[in-house]
Design brief:
Length: 150
């Protein structure tokens, strides 16, 4: 059995406002997931800005971790993990933010907060779920205080 058989063959997508469907093979799946993630992060950033947040950084990386979006609202620095999904066959997007992932985000946040500019701010950890619904558009669910430092 080859990889294509294990993954169930090709995935057919029906992009919004498109007159044809697009078929993506197994080899293209990683690229599609990367594009889906970038699109989800862009949607989440626009959503947060519309709610009054100021985006400070995107894709903040340290050696072992990454934070998708760092934003500020009033006197709070918000570290945001974005999860985009085109379906929920494998669970809700927020369920992919495991304890291990939370620890990595917290580790990266502690490095970010070492900057004197932000050392006096309170902080919190949010998750933004982006549901890619094809022709029905995109839905966003913002989970404030999704997890905390324990």
């Amino acid at each position: 059995m080859n990889a294509k058989d294990k993954l169930g063959g090709n995935v057919t997508l029906h992009p919004a406002n498109a007159s044809t469907s697009l078929t993506i093979g197994v080899d293209d799946r990683a690229q599609w997931n990367k594009q889906k993630g970038k699109f989800g992060e862009d949607c989440a950033a626009k959503f947060l800005e519309a709610k009054g947040y100021t985006i400070i950084a995107k894709n903040f990386r340290i050696r072992s971790a990454e934070i998708d979006i760092i934003a500020k609202l009033d006197n709070v620095i918000v570290f945001v993990e974005v999860k985009a999904r085109s379906d929920i066959r494998h669970g809700l997007p927020s369920e992919a933010v495991t304890l291990r992932k939370q620890k990595k985000i917290i580790e990266a946040a502690s490095v970010f907060l070492q900057d004197e500019t932000f050392s006096e701010y309170a902080c919190r950890f949010d998750v933004v779920e982006v549901y890619l619904n094809g022709e029905r558009g995109t839905e966003i669910n913002h989970i404030e205080n999704a997890f905390e430092v324990s």
